[in-house]
């Protein structure tokens, strides 16, 4: 059975003409007039697959745009326009105007923060499904890509990882968190911070970048694949919340940290000589930026525990066709 990315590679990658960068990164790049390229990406959220059907609609509207903004951040692009396609069950489309009102309020709250215009889309009736296409601009030949990592690069992450996966495990009754811990972790799941400004500021500092949507190991693995390099990371160097620290090193918490997904932080690589500038950027933007490992030659991804022993993971992250 194909994985999500094997399916795309097998059936949908074909030669393109006039495309700067096609399928395989966080966004495609298309040449535009002047000194910019267009960055274009799309994401689909399906009820029961990506979110619970009773999720607060305002949070859902916010998050549906945030996950797309995160793709723009990973490319270093300035998001400009969005198209929204909604498939709505009849009871939401016809009978529950409060749901649509709250959803749109959440969506436009974030859109206004980033000066993104909603320019079109589509609506139809059916099982709840949210699809957003986002278009941004990035300076010509300056976009951050997955294919730029070089041996010797530092590996960095923004923010804290794993909280969204922790609270999702609680909601799905796979684990039990304290009420205060649920309250602390919920924003990571429902209102993730798209690191748009950070992505733009990393142009010229980072060699490669990706947003962490499917889990650190899976998404860093994409950088390794496209850059043809290896990586060694130290688990104890990964920035995480006090809630996550409480449950580590239990195996289920390690899975949330390394492979849980839904983080929507940036993972990027940069040469060691840029450490000081990146630390200054962290202070300027008030965002935690943490070095967690190094890029090397070869192809392997090795995660070491506090004792320096490799951590063996059955799954490296979320796969839409195996979850």
UniProtKB/TrEMBL annotation:
<feature type="domain" description="PurM-like N-terminal">
    <location>
        <begin position="24"/>
        <end position="138"/>
    </location>
</feature>
<dbReference type="Pfam" id="PF02769">
    <property type="entry name" value="AIRS_C"/>
</dbReference>
<feature type="binding site">
    <location>
        <position position="26"/>
    </location>
    <ligand>
        <name>Mg(2+) 3</name>
    </ligand>
</feature>
<dbReference type="GO" id="GO:0009030">
    <property type="term" value="F:thiamine-phosphate kinase activity"/>
</dbReference>
<keyword id="KW-0460">Magnesium</keyword>
<comment type="function">
    <text>Catalyzes the ATP-dependent phosphorylation of thiamine-monophosphate (TMP) to form thiamine-pyrophosphate (TPP), the active form of vitamin B1.</text>
</comment>
<feature type="binding site">
    <location>
        <begin position="121"/>
        <end position="122"/>
    </location>
    <ligand>
        <name>ATP</name>
    </ligand>
</feature>
<dbReference type="GO" id="GO:0009228">
    <property type="term" value="P:thiamine biosynthetic process"/>
</dbReference>
<dbReference type="InterPro" id="IPR036676">
    <property type="entry name" value="PurM-like_C_sf"/>
</dbReference>
<feature type="binding site">
    <location>
        <position position="146"/>
    </location>
    <ligand>
        <name>ATP</name>
    </ligand>
</feature>
<keyword id="KW-0547">Nucleotide-binding</keyword>
<feature type="binding site">
    <location>
        <position position="122"/>
    </location>
    <ligand>
        <name>Mg(2+) 1</name>
    </ligand>
</feature>
<feature type="binding site">
    <location>
        <position position="50"/>
    </location>
    <ligand>
        <name>substrate</name>
    </ligand>
</feature>
<keyword id="KW-0808">Transferase</keyword>
<dbReference type="InterPro" id="IPR036921">
    <property type="entry name" value="PurM-like_N_sf"/>
</dbReference>
<feature type="binding site">
    <location>
        <position position="71"/>
    </location>
    <ligand>
        <name>Mg(2+) 4</name>
    </ligand>
</feature>
<dbReference type="GO" id="GO:0005524">
    <property type="term" value="F:ATP binding"/>
</dbReference>
<keyword id="KW-0067">ATP-binding</keyword>
<feature type="binding site">
    <location>
        <position position="41"/>
    </location>
    <ligand>
        <name>Mg(2+) 4</name>
    </ligand>
</feature>
<dbReference type="InterPro" id="IPR010918">
    <property type="entry name" value="PurM-like_C_dom"/>
</dbReference>
<keyword id="KW-0784">Thiamine biosynthesis</keyword>
<dbReference type="GO" id="GO:0009229">
    <property type="term" value="P:thiamine diphosphate biosynthetic process"/>
</dbReference>
<dbReference type="Pfam" id="PF00586">
    <property type="entry name" value="AIRS"/>
</dbReference>
<feature type="binding site">
    <location>
        <position position="26"/>
    </location>
    <ligand>
        <name>Mg(2+) 4</name>
    </ligand>
</feature>
<dbReference type="InterPro" id="IPR016188">
    <property type="entry name" value="PurM-like_N"/>
</dbReference>
<feature type="binding site">
    <location>
        <position position="214"/>
    </location>
    <ligand>
        <name>Mg(2+) 5</name>
    </ligand>
</feature>
<keyword id="KW-0418">Kinase</keyword>
<protein>
    <recommendedName>
        <fullName>Thiamine-monophosphate kinase</fullName>
        <ecNumber>2.7.4.16</ecNumber>
    </recommendedName>
</protein>
<feature type="domain" description="PurM-like C-terminal">
    <location>
        <begin position="150"/>
        <end position="304"/>
    </location>
</feature>
<feature type="binding site">
    <location>
        <position position="213"/>
    </location>
    <ligand>
        <name>ATP</name>
    </ligand>
</feature>
<comment type="pathway">
    <text>Cofactor biosynthesis; thiamine diphosphate biosynthesis; thiamine diphosphate from thiamine phosphate: step 1/1.</text>
</comment>
<feature type="binding site">
    <location>
        <position position="318"/>
    </location>
    <ligand>
        <name>substrate</name>
    </ligand>
</feature>
<dbReference type="GO" id="GO:0000287">
    <property type="term" value="F:magnesium ion binding"/>
</dbReference>
<feature type="binding site">
    <location>
        <position position="71"/>
    </location>
    <ligand>
        <name>Mg(2+) 2</name>
    </ligand>
</feature>
<feature type="binding site">
    <location>
        <position position="262"/>
    </location>
    <ligand>
        <name>substrate</name>
    </ligand>
</feature>
<feature type="binding site">
    <location>
        <position position="71"/>
    </location>
    <ligand>
        <name>Mg(2+) 3</name>
    </ligand>
</feature>
<dbReference type="InterPro" id="IPR006283">
    <property type="entry name" value="ThiL-like"/>
</dbReference>
<comment type="similarity">
    <text>Belongs to the thiamine-monophosphate kinase family.</text>
</comment>
<feature type="binding site">
    <location>
        <position position="42"/>
    </location>
    <ligand>
        <name>Mg(2+) 1</name>
    </ligand>
</feature>
<keyword id="KW-0479">Metal-binding</keyword>
<feature type="binding site">
    <location>
        <position position="43"/>
    </location>
    <ligand>
        <name>Mg(2+) 2</name>
    </ligand>
</feature>
<feature type="binding site">
    <location>
        <position position="43"/>
    </location>
    <ligand>
        <name>Mg(2+) 1</name>
    </ligand>
</feature>
């Amino acid at each position: 059975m194909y994985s999500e990315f094997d399916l795309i590679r097998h059936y949908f990658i074909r030669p393109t003409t006039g495309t700067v960068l096609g399928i395989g990164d966080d966004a495609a790049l298309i040449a535009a007039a002047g000194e910019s390229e267009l960055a274009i990406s799309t994401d689909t959220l399906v009820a029961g697959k990506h979110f619970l059907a009773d999720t607060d609609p305002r949070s859902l509207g916010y998050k549906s745009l945030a996950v797309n903004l995160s793709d723009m951040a990973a490319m270093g692009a300035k998001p400009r326009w969005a198209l929204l396609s909604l498939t709505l069950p009849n009871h939401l489309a016809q009978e529950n105007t409060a749901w649509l009102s709250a959803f749109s309020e959440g969506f436009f709250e974030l859109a206004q923060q980033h000066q993104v215009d909603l320019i079109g889309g589509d609506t139809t009736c059916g099982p709840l499904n949210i699809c957003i296409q986002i278009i941004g601009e990035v300076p010509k030949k300056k976009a951050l890509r997955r294919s730029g990592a070089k041996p010797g690069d530092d590996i960095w992450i923004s923010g804290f990882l794993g909280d969204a996966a922790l609270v999702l495990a609680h909601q799905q009754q796979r684990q039990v968190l304290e009420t205060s811990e649920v309250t602390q972790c919920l924003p990571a799941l429902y209102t993730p911070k798209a690191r748009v400004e950070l992505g733009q500021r990393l142009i010229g500092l980072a060699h490669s970048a990706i947003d962490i949507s499917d889990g650190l190991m899976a998404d860093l693995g994409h950088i390794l694949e496209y850059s043809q390099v290896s990586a060694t990371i130290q688990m104890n160097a990964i920035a995480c919340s006090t809630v996550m620290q409480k449950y580590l090193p239990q195996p289920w918490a390690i899975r949330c940290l390394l492979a849980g997904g839904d983080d929507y932080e940036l993972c990027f690589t940069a040469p060691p000589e840029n450490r000081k500038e990146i630390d200054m950027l962290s202070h300027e933007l008030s965002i935690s930026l943490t070095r967690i490992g190094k890029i090397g030659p070869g192809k392997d991804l090795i995660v070491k525990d506090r004792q320096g022993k490799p951590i063996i993971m059955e799954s490296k992250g979320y796969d839409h066709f195996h979850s």
